[in-house]
Amino acid sequence: MKPSRSRRLSVESLEGRRLLAAVNIPDDLTSAPDAIVSVPVNIDSATGVRAAEIRLSYDTSVLDLDADDIDFGSVWGTDGDTQVTANVDDAAGTVVIFVSASSALTDVSGSLVELPFSVASDAVVDSTSVLDLTEVSLNEGQITVDPSPVSGTDSTDGLITITAAATGDDSISGFVYADADNDNSLGTGEAIPGVTITLTNTSTGAELQTTTDVDGSYEFTDLAPGEYEIVQSQPVAYLDSGDNELTVTLVEGTTLEDQNFRELGLLPQFIFNRLHTNTVMPVGSDNWNDAVSDLNTFAESTESSSSASAATASFSDAAASTSSASGAESTTTSTSDSNASGEPLFDQAEAEPLASVAANVVTAQTAGMATPVASSDDDSDENEAVDEVFASNLF
Ligand SMILES: [Ca+2]
Ligand SMILES: [Ca+2]
Ligand SMILES: [Ca+2]
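A: This is the predicted complex of the input protein with calcium ion.
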């Protein structure tokens, strides 16, 4: 097929049909005071659309909007090159949004844009607030919008009804843990503290966030019944089991427990440090929990900018300072006498295989813990050693 013909045909197919699209904002939106309501501007068929200009007005005494939070909607998909430019006039309560992509959309329906409005804390329950769609232009007017939104009341306008704040006493809770012994349950020393968990009410868009406690637990209380999405921010030092998102239905008067996130263990480049923390800080101690927390925080901060071995080396310094802050605890009695001479266990010039590190680590602090061992290459001996370490429940 010649390219020129193909191009011409596609132009003809667009011009040969009179393209029509209906655009509107839902009129059955609800939100409690002091919550966020995600407002979509929907289109019934996006055939041929590659650009949309949308204007609307809102009541500034009830609603607030940040231009930076406005996002493109579902019709554009997630792997395109969609651009959104938005301008919000807070004083006037007007919004202008321009959204576009490099190629035209197919016959899909959904939202062109999503506007997360904050509802005022003094918004009156059972009152309503109008979202006045004032103008929509598709492909600079080449696609007819019917019915055409106008300034003032028309059928395309949206409506938010203010509902009483969720005063439910339902709750959702769970744990984040590294399943070192692979038994699918949280055992001693497997808790991962400091992991961010985000709970979203999928019907209202309202979000809550918390972090896991020292025992790896998290809990959201005083929830209303409904559909929720629970998302775990992956602790980057750990090997992901792949389930970082849970969708649950909370039935009135119930408590959803054990909404757990299971990790598979520390990533190889962080194992050495965990051994270190195991040694100088007994598993489950406050210092140990702090160190695991620090490890995650540090791993997150170095995730994109550092190589694995650099991250290992730097964290080792951080762990060392943590342990010295804990004072006398770092003189834990060694369970091995194989290194009584005090000679360095880890030769800086040639790093030992991990198996040997695992076997000797209990004596590491008497040797000074001088040298972190990088383990990020693909040497199979080391991989076997890593497996051994996991199996030994030290990971
Ligand atoms: Ca209108
Ligand atoms: Ca376990
Ligand atoms: Ca995970």
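Residues 170-265 form a domain with the Immunoglobulin-like fold (CATH 2.60.40.10). The chain has six helices and 22 strands.
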